[in-house]
Amino acid sequence: MKESSFSQQIRTHLTKHGHWTRVENVCVSGMPDINMFINGRDVWIETKISKGNRIIFEQSQNTWHLKRARWGGDHIVLTRHKDTTIVSAMSAMVKAFVWYGTHKPYVAAQDAIRDALWTSEKPMDWDRLLSTVKSF
What we know:
By secondary structure, the chain is α+β, with helices and mostly antiparallel strands. The chain has one domain: Trna Endonuclease, Chain: A, domain 1, CATH 3.40.1350. It contains 5 helices and 9 strands. The protein has helices spanning 3-14, 59-69, 90-95, 109-115, 126-135; strands spanning 19-22, 34-38, 41-49, 54-56, 76-81, 84-89, 98-100, 104-108, 118-121. The strands form 2 sheets. It has a 6-stranded mixed β-sheet, with helices on both faces. The protein has a 3-stranded antiparallel β-sheet with strand order 4-8-7. The radius of gyration is 14 Å and the shape is globular. It starts with a helix and ends with a helix. 28% of the residues are buried.
């Protein structure tokens, strides 16, 4: 599955519960893929598809998160790993980062599963995801 297809599935299931925007920002790199306005607040969601047993991030995504975290911000990372969806806080993912090369951190899938808010095997538990987004 492509990340764009995964992102579209998420938006399709959450669209009647709030206002969402797919963020494709060439001016501010690293910004999460989806912004959802729900229950009077903004929730940011990053979508990922694992590559083998790695969940790979861009350095700019780490930088964006660290700037946001300085002010108390966090966001959700939804990762599709084989038949499992991993629902995580970005703050937990950053703590598990492994760096390779010079600029692309990754998280081992088993570490993401261990540190997840929760996981869902297919089919996705959309009600639980909505509850997580509302309370994040």
